[in-house]
């Protein structure tokens, strides 16, 4: 369990650049690494809890055996004082059994307590490393997002003024010029398609103006 946690951490430290080179999403990968670490910590917490429970059970067995040994010792004393050696002998025999059991439980409990202390320290170390990796992950995610933004902006800027964009602009300019030429042509065609009636109407207007001008000059003596 602890070795796997170390392996995940080492992968995060040493393989991130390689993953980036493969165009993998670093943000998603970092989130996955943290989920794996969190799962390792939960498994470690379960293991530590079981170890602590086992330690408590062994301690209780040791205490019970020690208590019974003391009880049988006191009963043996009472039996001797009462003159009942047989009862005293049986009490001492049972006492010896409890002493053996107590010694065995004491040794087992001490080993369990030592193992619990090691596991608790390992768990605390895992949590400290997880917190450090969390801070580092946030920093790496921010750097990754910044890098992606810069790349997007650079690509956008590099496309501005490119041959493709310039050619597209020139095509639009030519199209506008063509539309303007069509408009001028349609106006010329309209002026060239006047009917005879239109021309005679203009002639009448011109004659009317000429007559009015001649009358005005005569009035003013400017003929």
From TrEMBL:
Name of the protein in question: PspA/IM30 family protein
PANTHER family, per the entry: MEMBRANE-ASSOCIATED PROTEIN VIPP1, CHLOROPLASTIC, PHAGE SHOCK PROTEIN A
Any Pfam family the entry gives: PspA_IM30
UniProt feature, compositional bias: Basic and acidic residues: 163-207
Membership in a protein family: Belongs to the PspA/Vipp/IM30 family.
Residue ranges, annotated region (Disordered): 141-223
Transmembrane segments: none
Listed InterPro entries: PspA_VIPP1
Coiled coil regions, renumbered to chain: none
């Amino acid at each position: 369990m602890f070795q796997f946690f170390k392996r995940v951490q080492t992968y995060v430290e040493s393989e991130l650049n390689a993953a980036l080179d493969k165009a993998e999403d670093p943000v998603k990968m970092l989130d996955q690494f943290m989920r794996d670490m969190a799962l390792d910590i939960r498994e470690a917490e379960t293991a530590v809890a079981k170890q602590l429970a086992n330690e408590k059970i062994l301690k209780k067995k040791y205490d019970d055996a020690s208590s019974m040994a003391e009880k049988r010792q006191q009963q043996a004393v009472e039996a001797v004082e009462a003159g009942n050696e047989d009862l005293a002998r049986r009490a001492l025999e049972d006492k010896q059994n409890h002493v053996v059991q107590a010694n065995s439980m004491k040794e087992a409990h001490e080993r369990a307590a030592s193992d619990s202390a090691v596991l608790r320290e390992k768990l605390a170390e895992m949590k400290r490393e997880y917190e450090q990796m969390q801070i580092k992950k946030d920093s790496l995610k921010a750097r990754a997002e910044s890098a992606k933004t810069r790349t997007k902006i650079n690509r956008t800027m590099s496309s501005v003024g490119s041959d493709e964009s310039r050619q597209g602009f020139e095509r639009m300019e030519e199209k506008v010029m063509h539309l303007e030429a069509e408009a001028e042509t349609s106006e010329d065609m309209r002026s060239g398609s006047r009917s005879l009636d239109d021309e005679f109407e203009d002639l009448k207007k011109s004659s009317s103006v000429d007559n009015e001008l001649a009358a005005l000059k005569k009035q003013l003596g400017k003929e």
